[in-house]
Amino acid sequence: MTNPKHAQDTPQGRYYTDPAGGPALVSVTNVLDTAVNKSHSLVPWGVKVTVEYVLDNWKAIAHRVITDRPALTREIKAIHREVKETASNLGDRIHTAAEQHVLGAPVTNDAEVAPYLAQLVRWLALWSVDLTEHVVATEITVMHRRLGYAGTADLMIWLPTGPDGVMELWLIDYKTSATRSAKSVYPENTLQLAALRYAETALLPDDTDAPMPAIQRTGVLNLRAKSHALVEMPAGRDAHRAFRGLLEGTRWLHVAPSTYPALLAPGQTEPARRRTTRKAA
């Protein structure tokens, strides 16, 4: 995950500070991470990468089952987290390189990032994008203070997608993957784009407010090492209403207690707490 200027990590996930003051604003991705169940895809993926690791390293693992089982167990349990963190780190670097390119700034030399950036450059060329004329904003913080959320828009850009090639303003979110098809998206991508699209305020580089531009179309630009695809997403008012429901659920979950007192039967007394002693290390 990239690190926008005003974003702060908290025990309840990412929040944005408002340079104008006022309460912290929950991030759009935090809402989706909290309120959308991703186990149907993440659990099979986690099993897959763990099994692949075991099969690829079975000889060393077979020996350590006998000689180093506790440490081996910890390492195998951490495999899926390490793979996810590696992929997330690559995604962050790709986003940074994309921003640098779109702004005309020097791009960091990164061999892993280069194939993905090449696909972005190819996509821009295919649409005859003039970076100076057609790009409205990149990596810009948007806020909806009344509803209490904020997020970062990857790209606002004019593309000739209207009737007879009329230019339309797009809000685009980059998505990267080393394994998924360039045409694949998740349903929650629509909710993310709707939340950003219907924010009320965009922050300029000097942290002053500007009205959120009127976005005409929204999409995910999937960048892969050897391909790319712009997938339009139906991020309309209905999707924004759905996001607002998740936003309310997220607020409730973030302040809800994690424990509650047990109900005792009539005449029952609370059992004495067991005393424990720490063993010396």
The percent range for helix content is 40-55%
Q: How many DSSP-defined strands? A: 10
Mean pLDDT: 92
Gyration radius, rounded = 23 Å
The arrangement of helices and strands along the chain is: EEEHHHHHHEEEHEEEEH
End-to-end gap: 38 Å
Low-pLDDT residue intervals, each spanning 5 or more residues? none
Strand content: 15-25%
Q: Please give the count of helices.
A: 8
Largest sheet: 10 strands, mixed
So what's the overall shape? globular
Secondary structure category: alpha+beta
Task: Please give a handful of descriptors for the protein shown.
single chain, about 280 residues, alpha+beta, 10-stranded mixed beta sheet, 8 helices
Describe the protein in words.
The structure is a single chain. With 281 residues, the chain is of the alpha+beta class. The chain has 8 helices and 10 strands. Strands 1, 2, 3, 4, 5, 6, 7, 8, 9 and 10 form a 10-stranded mixed sheet that branches. β9 (217-223) and β10 form a beta hairpin. The mean pLDDT is 92.
